[in-house]
Amino acid sequence: MKKSDIAMIILIASVSILVAYFVAKGLLGDVKSQSVKVKVADPISSEVEQPDPKTFNTNAVNPTVEVIIGDGNAAPQNQ
What distances in angstroms separate CA 29 from CA 15, 25, 65, one per listed residue? Predict the structure, then answer.
């Protein structure tokens, strides 16, 4: 390669880097000038509240218990 070719490649690369820098800065903005408000978390207390008796009552059906209808020996049928 000639010296002029190498110089042209370096010039094009430099200009491309500068253009990319300014485009990225324009799209993303300046990081230092942005402010962020963070919601503060409430402290955890050791106090436990009782669950709602309408939802968690002693007479409710337990969905974790297996219910077998019939003799229980029949294989499931695919329809």
Answer: 21, 5, 57
Q: Which pTM value belongs to this model?
A: 0.38
Structure tokens that stand for 14 in this block: 């430099």
Domain count for the chain? 1
Tens-place pLDDT, residues 18-41: 999 999 888 887 667 667 888 999
Structure tokens at 5: 């070719």
C-alpha distances (whole Å) from 2 to each of 43, 58, 71, 78 are 70, 89, 91, 76
Q: Which contacts of 44-50 are long-range, i.e. CB under 8 A and separated by 24 or more positions?
A: none
pLDDT of residue 34: 65
Q: Which two tokens stand for residue 21?
A: 């820098």
**Residue 52, pLDDT score:** 79
Q: Does a structural domain hold residue 7?
A: yes
